[in-house]
Structure prediction request, 386 residues.
Amino acid sequence: MDENNKMNISRRGFLKTAAAIGAALTIQPAIDKVKAANVALNGGNTLSMKKGNIPYRTLGTGKAALEVSALGFGVMGMTYNRSQHPDKKQCIRLLHEAVERGVTLFDTAIIYGPLTNEDLAGEALAEFRGNVNVTTKFGHEVIGGKGTGHQDSRPATIRKYCEDSLRRLRLDTLPMFYQHRADPNVPAEEVAQTIADLMKEGKVQHWGMCEVSADTIRRAHAVCPLTAIQSEYHLMHRLVEGNRVLDTCRELGIGFVPYSPINRGFLGGDINEYTVFDPANDNRQTLPRFQPEAMRANMRIVNVLQQFGRTRGMTSAQVALGWLLQKAPWIVPIPGTTKLSHLEENLRVLDFDLASEEWRELETAVAAIPVVGDRYNAEQQKQVGR
Prediction:
């Protein structure tokens, strides 16, 4: 082993030891702080504290209820649509670090890869079966390991995808199975009934839908109670507040899982108009909002988050996540990352205690800046809001 490697390992060992000693000396104040932040971020509702002192939240109600960590983990970017990524061993190590810190909700999908993201999640998280919830999604048609660009939620296809996902995830039952995009040729009621049958067979525990309308949510929920709705939601995209989706979830007791809660990394301030995306593995280059001129204009929003966080000891990513967490106690964001430093940064948002007036101040400042560029191109936009 060369001297540089020895020094790096020695440094890591020192930092781990120092962190352990510091934690031992300050554990009770830290717990008190996290409990206080939990109340503040959850609208005054004190929630349970579990492994790693992470607060837990409940998605859904009644038999559809699923208790998970207040922040989940989006696995997608570890293999799909986020440019270069670490090798499999490093990804597995990071997923284990997330579990060690108390994260229990991990999100993947058949289309991510396709298939390779489920394979990774299955290999990394199988040993924690029963202690974590690995959720996945069906709906996008995949033939011969490739996405076709179409939706297929026919009952027979859902059943096949369920069996395939169980095998790749190394599970006997899926903690939650989302419909990734609505199929215009299959009624929501028929999809819901198929899931209800899979639940009776013990192959699915809970279910959800992604990027659907309030009316579709009601129709599906009436047949088989939904645990969660997953849609894009962050300070630069608040459509679910205006199209009655959030109100419908609140009324029906359905949880809400915002994906891309940091706007595909943009609100974290790490990418800008000069960022070069991998043309072979990054969908951001195709999105109007991630064209150079749009990013240049939208950087004003990032600056607002940075200014807001600077006086509160928060990064812009933490501000973005904290804003979502305080919106409702049944909202669970799923930020993804391939870096341990970002995982720890995301989880530290649970330490902060901000008043509702401060969050309103942030909203007002951001709302004054028009967002430039659509979030999806025309073809992808057709698939949402059905």
Summary: The two ends are 57 Å apart (CA to CA). Confidence is low (pLDDT under 50) at residues 1-46. The first strand starts at residue 56 and ends at 59. The chain has 13 helices and eleven strands.
